[in-house]
């Protein structure tokens, strides 16, 4: 401990050997000292975590490290290892177990050099513990795990591949022995772990034992007696087994064996619930005519299990195997029997427990009950298989996608178990993402229908008061609170306030109608549909979906914001379901706002408000998403008309230096303007939407009064403009927006004027006199495009529609640049006119503000909090 | 380093439709060198493409033999001496392939369309798509739709899912829609995916380019040119549309598809013009940000679109270039052993006749994402988790059977140890008792009066201590 004084801090390398030694002293039991198992169970994790966080076994070796330190460290690790090895050779099974576990950790943590020099010793030591004299099961399991770790590390060194294969070969027989002769499930699990490592990293070592491994695992799976977890692990190994040979045929053969075995089991299980012809048909697909049946799985012939219970565990494990075969990589190209796999999926999904008429007399109700109780599991696995097929085949599935669409849509109509529905939704998402817009055409109607149903069943009462398909969601909210207020009035004014903010009781009852997880799946699916296929003939459903998503988002948030932080008290769930639901609904809402449409998103202002509120109030993850949503919507509100760089530089080079300078001036001028604009805009906008301050509102009203006079002319001009150019879409847009969406209109006008300002200097330049320049700058203030006299003059030359305003601008730019050649002095004038334009712009902010004012109360209304408070 | 740069450089593949003797030439765009020449090829316009960066595929415009059939040749770029020669029922005009390189579509002058699966070579479908000759075709960005342009100005859009449906044919119509807005032959089709909104642009000899919404077929915009448009290309990132016209001019437009309803845009005045060619433009394409234009005047040019200057002018003396494809130079190099990519789909001869599909037959594929194969297998330890699992299992109430067994073993061990220790202690105490008795006897007999009281107490203590375990054990 004398050294301790010299240590700098916790990063000091000198600390490591010291720490390691004290760990050995503290935790590792001495040779003849008994181990307190209960204590060691608590101590082991902390020991392992200290070793791992401080990299105590890594033995960093570099020039900069003091060689003395290297030696100390080395000897400390030597001690550690000798201590472990002595534990390993202990007679006490618990000590042995601790030693084996720590050796596994050492395999992961130690330096490459040390690992390479001693892996074979370790392997042999560990090997001795899974061979016959060993009897403790825990020791066997731990040895298997540590061996798996050792092999995993060994696989990182390609130079010892040969040696590794040789050593791995030694392990296979003991592992097979564990599988065949041991009769404890936990040991098989350990053996499966080791087998997985062998197949994954040293497939060549398995080659000679291929059939034996297959038989050993197959017998376990076909017996179907063990826990799902163990069977799955074993099944995974079986699915990977063809890698040991690595050729095309062994993969296909294994797959064929799986399929035939599943088929045989199904034939037996489904006796009486499906037509006989189905099983023959499936068989025909599996074994091409004229070809021999392959040997059954595992070599032994399949023995029928008793009819008392269905072989569900076996069938599901075999289907799991198929899934894994499809989704894990394989070194060569293989032939996937897509058609027969899809037929299997369809066959399973078709059986719903109902009895065909012909079978009616042969079935007892007990048999039917038996099948019905097991069917959900089988359906779940067949959906899993479908997922695996989609994942494995990706784009190549195209020839079968029409078939899949038929299967999926047919099943969608009947499927009502929440879990299955969630899976089905995820399949649809995968199809949409992988096949694109082409498949969206076929899937959209069913997705819309089902998702709407699922989401609308949110609460019967909600639907009563606010039908989903009519009217915007703003309507829904006040109505809802009105109803609650009435309710409160009946019970008495004291209870009113308590009642209003806690609508949980009624809701939680109705939620049970459609579980919230299904709703989340429906929301996610709608989100994907909107991203992939928003443009696909969506007119018919778009508005109803938009309003549904808005409604769902508002509903999800009216209870307050959930927290997505993980909660250790919730089993298996990292965060509360409610917060997840909020997250899904907000994501779907953002997509619905962003998805392309022909009109402005009708619920933009509500959405913005929701996101703003979420940003401030919600938990970190939700708030982060809300911030992202605002960020993404920014482009929608203020479209960026960025200059096309190469386009402009093209004119730079085509004209001489003087005009170059002139252009630069324009740009710097306009840029300045833009920034001042933006800041103004942001101020007004935030004031507009976020604040519910009455004073502010009054001030806005005042502003409006002040500007009334100026404002009067504009509508007239607008009208003129409209008559002269009936097709001007931007203008009609403005009108529409004004009616529906005041806040957005506000932004819209800003955006447009902003564009216009960039254009402005060119016009100004053409009309050199200052006074006119000011006039035109004023004209910019009007929200409609093209009221500017100079501008219209130019535009009349080129019969452009306003849509290509940018083109227009550019062209103007060229023309004026050409004219300007040689007029150096003009630049100064422009900059002065620019200042005027800036003035104009600042006055314009006021102007715009009033366009939003008539609807302002509506925005305040839309906020549920204020609503409740105002009571 | 040099190698790496070379790998990223691009090369231009050009060919003509006039005579088979001209063949395919591959040019280095930077140096102007000729990298490769493949003899005997004359591809129809839009009849040349690069498949998966490895193969050059060209439909042969000359008729094959006296039967009037056509042919499609596939050359591996790194081994161009041995092409796959597939013979088709009719002479093929335009051909195209999906982005993933899984399907090839071909159109014949009769208006018939053909669809092959590349891996198996199977002719999946032939159908009469148009009454007039097919002029060009293109797949949508997500490969799910197929767009045809015809000499009579009709554009049709087909659903791939329905076209290649193995089960049936007919249950759902493959034709999504068609449009006859163009008054003259279609000369070019370009797809463009702006996120969820897929659009495509068509150019026509009637002097217009039209912008369409891909799925709904809604006409968004028309760009009007003073001349017939013979070729179009989109700048890879910016919204610039390049349209080559019949008089050799190339018009450049800023292309804006904002929420604009049906409108006409005359481009005459606002577009700027790239002018170098004297005769009709035959093809336009991009290499990086450089435009390449080919013309009937036997030349093709590499443009700096920013400065609007020609960087390099190539002269294809033997004939006008009608097809151009940009490829990576790296695909020309023979594959070295250590970089051999095993995961390559095979390319089969395209079949001449459709064959009944065998439902039992599977579909050849690679089961993994190609990217994950260049890397060594990902190694991660699962031991730790298992270790934790074992340990936590021992902490919890629900214990694994193995853990229980170990505990039992441990208990037995402990019991044994305790018994042996007890025996040991008993022996010792017996021994001590004997000694004590001896001593007492001895002292009582020898020297009873010399004893102090304190040692006596001690002895008593010892006695009592010794007796306790004995009594217990008894």
UniProtKB/TrEMBL annotation, chain A:
GO terms for biological process: rRNA processing. Residues 862-871 have a biased composition (Acidic residues). It comes from the Eukaryota. Residues 841-855 have a biased composition (Low complexity). Keywords: Nucleus. InterPro entries: ARM-like, ARM-type_fold, RIX1_N. It is found in: Nucleus. One of its GO terms (cellular component) is nucleus. Residues 459-513, 705-730, 783-806, 830-871 are annotated as: Disordered. Residues 42-224 form the Pre-rRNA-processing protein RIX1 N-terminal domain. Belongs to the RIX1/PELP1 family. PANTHER family: PROLINE-, GLUTAMIC ACID- AND LEUCINE-RICH PROTEIN 1 (PTHR34105:SF1). This is Proline-, glutamic acid- and leucine-rich protein 1 isoform X1. It comes from Gossypium hirsutum. The lineage of its organism: Eukaryota, Viridiplantae, Streptophyta, Embryophyta, Tracheophyta.
UniProtKB/TrEMBL annotation, chain B:
GO terms for cellular component: nuclear pre-replicative complex; rixosome complex. It comes from the Eukaryota. WD repeats lie at residues 127-160, 179-222, 274-304. Residues 453-474 are annotated as: Disordered. The keyword Transferase does not apply. Keywords: WD repeat. One of its GO terms (biological process) is DNA-templated DNA replication. Residues 463-474 have a biased composition (Polar residues). PANTHER family: PROTEIN ROOT INITIATION DEFECTIVE 3-LIKE, WD-REPEAT PROTEIN 18. This is Protein ROOT INITIATION DEFECTIVE 3 isoform X1.
């Amino acid at each position: 401990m004398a050294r301790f004084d010299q240590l700098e801090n916790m990063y000091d390398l000198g600390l490591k050997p010291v720490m390691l030694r004290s760990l050995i002293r503290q935790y590792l039991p001495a040779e003849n000292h008994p181990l307190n198992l209960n204590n060691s169970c608590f101590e082991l994790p902390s020991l392992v975590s200290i070793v791992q966080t401080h990299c105590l076994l890594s033995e960093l070796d570099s020039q900069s490290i003091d060689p003395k330190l290297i030696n100390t460290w080395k000897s400390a690790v030597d001690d550690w290892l000798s201590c472990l090895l002595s534990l390993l050779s202990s007679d006490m099974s618990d000590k042995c177990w601790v030693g084996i576990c720590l050796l596994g950790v050492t395999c992961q943590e130690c330096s490459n050099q040390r690992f390479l020099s001693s892996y074979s010793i370790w392997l042999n030591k560990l090997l001795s513990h899974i061979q016959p004299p060993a009897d403790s099961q825990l020791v066997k399991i731990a040895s298997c795990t540590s061996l798996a770790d050792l092999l995993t590390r060994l696989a990182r060194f390609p130079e010892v591949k040969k040696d590794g294969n040789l050593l791995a070969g030694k392990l296979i027989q003991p592992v097979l022995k564990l599988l065949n002769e041991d009769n404890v499930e936990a040991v098989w699990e350990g053996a499966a772990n080791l087998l997985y490592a062998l197949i994954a990293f040293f497939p060549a070592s398995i080659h000679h034992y291929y059939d034996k491994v297959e038989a050993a695992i197959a017998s376990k799976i076909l017996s179907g007696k063990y826990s799902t977890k163990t069977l799955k692990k074993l099944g995974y190994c079986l699915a990977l087994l063809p890698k040991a040979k690595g050729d095309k045929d062994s993969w296909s053969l294994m797959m064929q064996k799986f399929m035939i075995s599943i088929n045989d089991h199904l034939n037996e299980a489904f006796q009486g619930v499906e037509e006989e012809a189905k099983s023959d048909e499936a068989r025909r697909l599996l074994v091409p005519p004229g070809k021999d049946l392959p040997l059954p799985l595992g070599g032994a012939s399949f023995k029928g299990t008793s009819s008392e219970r269905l072989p569900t565990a076996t069938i599901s494990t075999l289907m799991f195997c198929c899934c894994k075969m499809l989704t894990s990589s394989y070194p060569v190209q293989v032939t996937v029997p897509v058609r027969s796999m899809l037929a299997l999926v369809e066959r399973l999904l078709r059986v719903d427990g109902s009895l065909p008429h012909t079978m009616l007399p042969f079935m007892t109700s007990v048999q039917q009950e038996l099948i019905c109780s097991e069917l959900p599991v089988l359906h779940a696995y067949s959906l899993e298989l479908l997922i695996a097929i989609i994942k494995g085949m990706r784009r190549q599935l195209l020839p079968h996608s029409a078939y899949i669409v038929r299967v999926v849509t047919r099943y969608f109509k009947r499927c009502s178990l929440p879990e299955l529905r969630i899976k089905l939704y995820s399949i649809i998402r995968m199809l949409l993402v992988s096949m694109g817009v082409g498949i969206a055409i076929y899937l959209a109607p069913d997705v819309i229908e089902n998702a709407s149903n699922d989401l609308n069943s949110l609460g019967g009462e909600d639907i009563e008061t606010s039908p989903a398909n009519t009217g915007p969601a703003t309507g829904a909210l006040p109505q809802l609170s009105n109803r609650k207020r009435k309710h409160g009035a009946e019970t008495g004014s004291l209870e009113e306030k308590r009642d209003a903010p806690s609508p949980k009781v009624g809701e939680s009852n109705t939620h049970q109608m459609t579980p919230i997880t299904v709703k989340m799946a429906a929301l996610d699916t709608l989100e994907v549909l909107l991203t992939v296929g928003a443009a696909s003939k969506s007119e018919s459903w778009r508005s109803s979906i938009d309003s549904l998503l808005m409604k769902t988002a508002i509903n999800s948030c009216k209870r307050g914001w959930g927290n997505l932080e993980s909660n250790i008290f919730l089993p298996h769930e990292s965060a509360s379901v409610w917060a997840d639901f909020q997250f899904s609904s907000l994501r779907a809402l953002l997509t619905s706002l962003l998805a392309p449409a022909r009109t402005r998103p009708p619920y933009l202002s509500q959405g913005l408000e929701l996101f703003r509120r979420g940003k401030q109030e919600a938990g970190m993850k939700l708030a982060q998403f809300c911030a992202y949503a605002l960020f993404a919507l920014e482009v929608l509100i203020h479209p960026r008309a960025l200059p096309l760089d190469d386009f402009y530089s093209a004119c730079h080079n085509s004209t001489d230096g003087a005009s170059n300078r002139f252009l630069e001036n324009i740009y710097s001028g306009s840029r300045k303007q833009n920034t001042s604009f933006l800041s103004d805009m942001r101020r007004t906008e935030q004031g507009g939407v976020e604040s519910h301050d009455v004073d502010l509102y009054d001030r806005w009203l005042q502003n409006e009064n002040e500007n009334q006079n100026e404002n009067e002319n504009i509508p007239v001009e607008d009208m003129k403009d409209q008559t002269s150019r009936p097709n001007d879409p931007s203008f009609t847009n403005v009108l529409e927006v004004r009616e529906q969406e005041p806040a957005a209109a506000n932004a819209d006008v800003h955006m447009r004027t902003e564009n216009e300002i960039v254009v402005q200097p060119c016009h100004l330049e053409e009309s050199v006199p200052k006074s006119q320049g000011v006039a035109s700058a004023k004209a910019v203030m009007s929200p409609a495009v093209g009221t500017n006299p100079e501008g219209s003059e130019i535009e009349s030359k080129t019969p452009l529609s306003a849509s290509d305003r940018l083109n227009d601008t550019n062209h103007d730019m060229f023309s004026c640049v050409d004219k300007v050649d040689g007029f150096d002095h003009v630049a100064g004038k422009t900059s002065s006119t620019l200042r005027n334009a800036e003035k104009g712009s600042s006055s314009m902010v006021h102007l715009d503000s009033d366009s939003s004012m008539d609807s302002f109360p509506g925005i305040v209304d839309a906020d549920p909090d204020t609503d409740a408070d105002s009571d | 380093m040099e190698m790496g740069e070379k790998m990223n450089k691009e090369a231009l593949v050009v060919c003509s439709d006039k005579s088979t003797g001209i063949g395919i030439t591959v040019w280095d765009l930077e140096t102007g060198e000729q990298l490769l020449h493949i003899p005997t090829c004359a591809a129809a316009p839009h009849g040349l493409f690069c498949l998966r960066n490895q193969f050059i595929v060209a439909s042969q415009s000359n008729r094959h033999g006296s039967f009037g059939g056509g042919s499609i040749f596939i050359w591996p770029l790194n081994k161009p001496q041995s092409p796959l020669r597939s013979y088709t029922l009719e002479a093929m005009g335009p051909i195209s392939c999906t982005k993933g390189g899984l399907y090839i579509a071909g159109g014949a002058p009769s208006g018939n369309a053909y669809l092959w699966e590349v891996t198996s070579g199977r002719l999946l479908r032939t159908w009469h798509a148009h009454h007039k000759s097919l002029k060009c075709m293109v797949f949508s960005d997500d490969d799910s739709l197929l767009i045809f342009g015809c000499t009579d100005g009709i554009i049709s859009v087909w659903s791939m899912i329905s076209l290649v449906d193995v089960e049936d044919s007919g249950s759902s119509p493959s034709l999504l829609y068609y449009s006859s807005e163009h008054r003259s032959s279609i000369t070019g089709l370009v797809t463009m995916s702006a996120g969820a909104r897929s659009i495509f642009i068509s150019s026509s000899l009637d002097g217009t380019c039209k912008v369409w919404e891909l799925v709904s077929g809604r006409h968004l915009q028309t760009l009007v040119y003073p001349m017939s448009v013979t070729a179009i290309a989109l700048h890879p990132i910016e919204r610039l549309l390049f349209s080559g016209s019949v008089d050799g001019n190339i018009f450049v437009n800023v292309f804006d598809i904002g929420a604009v309803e049906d409108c006409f845009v005359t481009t005459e005045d606002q577009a700027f013009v790239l002018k170098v060619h004297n005769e009709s433009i035959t093809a336009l394409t991009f290499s990086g940000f450089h435009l390449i234009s080919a013309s009937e005047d036997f030349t093709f040019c590499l443009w700096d679109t920013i400065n609007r200057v020609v960087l390099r002018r190539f002269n294809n003396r033997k004939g006008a270039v009608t097809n151009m494809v940009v490829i990576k130079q790296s695909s020309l190099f023979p594959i070295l052993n250590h970089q051999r990519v095993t995961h390559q789909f095979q390319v089969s001869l395209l079949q001449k006749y459709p064959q009944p599909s065998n439902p039992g037959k599977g579909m050849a594929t690679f089961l993994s994402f190609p990217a994950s194969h260049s890397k060594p297998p990902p190694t991660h330890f699962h031991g730790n988790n298992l270790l934790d699992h074992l340990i936590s299992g021992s902490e919890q109430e629900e214990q694994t059977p193995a853990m229980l067994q170990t505990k039992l073993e441990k208990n037995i061990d402990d019991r044994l140890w305790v018994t042996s220790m007890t025996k040991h202690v008993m022996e010792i105490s017996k021994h001590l008792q004997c000694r004590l008795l001896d001593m007492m006897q001895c002292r009582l007999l020898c020297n009873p009066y010399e004893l102090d009281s304190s040692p006596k107490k001690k002895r008593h203590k010892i006695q009592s201590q010794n007796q306790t375990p004995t009594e217990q054990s008894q």
